[in-house]
Amino acid sequence: MSIELSGLGKTYQPDEWVLHDVSARIASGEFFAIVGPSGCGKSTLLRMIAGLTPITAGNLKINGRVVTDLPPKERQLTMVFQSYALFPFLSVQANVAFGLKARKFPPAEIDQRVTRAIQLVDLTAFRDRKPRDLSGGQRQRVALARAIASEAKLCLMDEPLSNLDAQLRVKMRTELRRLQQQLGLTVIYVTHDQVEAMTMADHIMVLHDHQVQQIGTPLDLYHHPANTFVGSFFGAPRMNLLPARVSEATELTLAQTLKVALPRPLPVADYTVGIRPNAITVLPAGTGAPCATVQTVEYLGAQTLLETQLPDGTALELIGVAPADYRPGDRVAVQLTGTLYVFDAQGRARMTLEGGVVHGNDAQTVSVADQS
Ligand SMILES: Nc1ncnc2c1ncn2[C@@H]1O[C@H](COP(=O)(O)OP(=O)(O)OP(=O)(O)O)[C@@H](O)[C@H]1O
């Protein structure tokens, strides 16, 4: 099932657009994630695709057919909700069979589809249990079996793993992805969790501020973020954002401290520069320019996260080198050794330089100024 969203918009109150001009093409058999912070309109968009919320503007096509104003049952899709929406008084088997009975399928076919779906999600031994006697993960799998039994090729999922504990969530991610590929389903999957989207999806749509910020593969979004929102949404620890200025065509100064030679000239202006913590090397004090002061230290086992401050007061998050014992107040030298992303001053768009990014790991193009 392919899906095409063309300029979709939604208002609940007159003139208050909760979604504006959303366009995307989702290929058949694709796992497509919609991510963004709370309230950005993810569930609204999914419900518009399902036909549960009317579309205010734009067009929706499923398999080439315009379905913008069709009721849900004519869209040949199924939906899995965060709450699972199971009937508490029915067994697993009856829950999975419910929709097929309502659609008046012959009993033999219902039995065959239900048995197969329950088998696929590995719940055969639990088929006579009621939802209250199942674990969270098992209930989630019942909801999934119901979607599978419907044999709809398009499955919409709204935060289906968010009620599970962390360990089970990781396991279910793999299972969901395996089932989706095995059954050739097209899945549109809403989540606020960037890791979930990154690990499961073929393509991701990032929503923020009522509109699409970027659509791309997980690697695209990580390596070529369109703006500072996308840059800091993906990746942990988060991308650092620093105020920057080009005062001579090829010289960029970050936070009034760190100087970078650009491979191509940029207009003299203010910019915002993004640097991921793993693109910065922390040197022991004394071996380089001590130009950041440690504020807080967080030991994470293999990594030590350092919240530091540059001389102009800009915060910079760094990854400390293993055995070194850092303390608040320590001075550390920092060297830019990875990719720098240059955005306009407001962070709305990334500047395109050669290859789209500035590489700081070429020793000739990066220098660190000692301001202390
Ligand atoms: N029925 C409604 N009537 C009026 N406003 C609504 C309605 N449903 C949602 N909204 C508003 O629309 C915006 C988008 O809500 P939506 O639930 O789609 O966001 P979301 O990204 O799914 O958020 P979350 O991650 O918190 O579930 C919010 O500002 C919300 O308050």
UniProtKB/TrEMBL annotation:
InterPro entries xref list: AAA+_ATPase, ABC_transporter-like_ATP-bd, ABC_transporter-like_CS, ABC_transpr_MalK-like, ABC_transpr_MalK/UgpC-like, Mo/tungstate-bd_C_term_dom, NA-bd_OB-fold, P-loop_NTPase
GO MF entries: ABC-type transporter activity; ATP binding; ATP hydrolysis activity
GO BP: carbohydrate transport
Phosphoprotein in keyword set: no
PROSITE patterns linked to this entry: ABC_TRANSPORTER_1, ABC_TRANSPORTER_2
Keywords: ATP-binding, Cell membrane, Membrane, Nucleotide-binding, Translocase, Transport
SUPFAM superfamilies given in the database record: MOP-like, P-loop containing nucleoside triphosphate hydrolases
CDD domains linked to this entry: ABC_MalK_N (cd03301)
Domain ABC transporter, chain residue ranges per copy: 3-234
GO cellular component terms attached to this protein's record: ATP-binding cassette (ABC) transporter complex, substrate-binding subunit-containing
Cross-referenced SMART domains: AAA
Protein name: Sugar abc transporter, atp-binding protein
Organism, as annotated: Levilactobacillus acidifarinae DSM 19394 = JCM 15949
